[in-house]
Amino acid sequence: METEILKVTHLNKFYGARQVLFDVNFTLHQGEVLTLLGPSGSGKSTLLRTLNGLEAFQAGTLTFNGQPVVADEAHWQKLRQKIGMVFQSYDLFPNLTVLENITLAPVKIQGRPAATVQAEALALLERVGLSAYAKAYPRELSGGQKQRIAIVRALALHPELMLFDEVTASLDPEMVRGVLEIIKQLSQEAAMTMIIVTHEMNFAAQIADRVLFLADGKIVEDTPGQQFFAQPQTKRAQEFLDSMD
Ligand code: ADP
Ligand code: MG
């Protein structure tokens, strides 16, 4: 549990002249589940996107597996194979089957043997209960199914860290549980290291080893999960939790 995967120091991020992240510092260890909570507009998505090279930052450092992250696109393309991300909108390729969606990057980008990758993809599909859909196209799937495929697609690259940004926010209520269940399994059975942004507080309370509470672009609390949900340290976080009931 003590191997450091990600270290963020003095991260500052601006959109134009407007600062949206202020001196963000935290460290993430292998197998740890970090839940990033905070009001809408507090900078959660921006922080996740910055950690995946989808947003530039103006000051601070990122260290991944002990190596400083160089802020150029070539380096980020390599890192994105290690840092998987799933968003609120499932962005599957519409013209590819489920299986092709999953195997494309491992074969084309990582150069792994197609047969191995395919076998693995089928096993992953089985794990999320979607084996029957290997040859289906995204349009034939429900939102919840698409989101499970999006997770499997990210996992097929063998990431060392997964970032989840409100992956159930656009799903019908009856679809939410299946997706959250997969994320829970990933943490429990695969000991996957994850940063999760979610509005599902029960889920967050069950899964979070640690909570980072963000408000106005600043980390207001960095607290063990149980402690945060039982008794947050700041009024700001308490108000946030009360508002989520
Ligand atoms: P959250 O995910 O916590 O709701 P965001 O990271 O999306 O918050 O947004 C943080 C702040 O940055 C908000 O004030 C938002 O309006 C602003 N913001 C987000 N994306 C952009 C962008 N592409 N350009 C300019 N401002 C942005
Ligand atoms: Mg967001």
UniProtKB/TrEMBL annotation:
SUPFAM superfamilies, per the entry: P-loop containing nucleoside triphosphate hydrolases
SMART domains: AAA
Residues of the ABC transporter domain: 6-241
Cited Gene3D superfamilies: P-loop containing nucleotide triphosphate hydrolases
Tree of life domain: Bacteria
MF annotations from Gene Ontology: ABC-type amino acid transporter activity; ATP binding; ATP hydrolysis activity
Keywords in alphabetical order: ATP-binding, Nucleotide-binding, Transport
Keyword Nucleotide-binding: yes
Entries under InterPro entries matching the protein: AAA+_ATPase (IPR003593), ABC_ATPase_HisP-typ (IPR030679), ABC_transporter-like_ATP-bd (IPR003439), ABC_transporter-like_CS (IPR017871), MetN_ABC_transporter-like (IPR050086), P-loop_NTPase (IPR027417)
Transmembrane spans: none
Similarity field: Belongs to the ABC transporter superfamily.
Protein name: ABC superfamily ATP binding cassette transporter, ABC protein
Species for this entry: Limosilactobacillus ingluviei
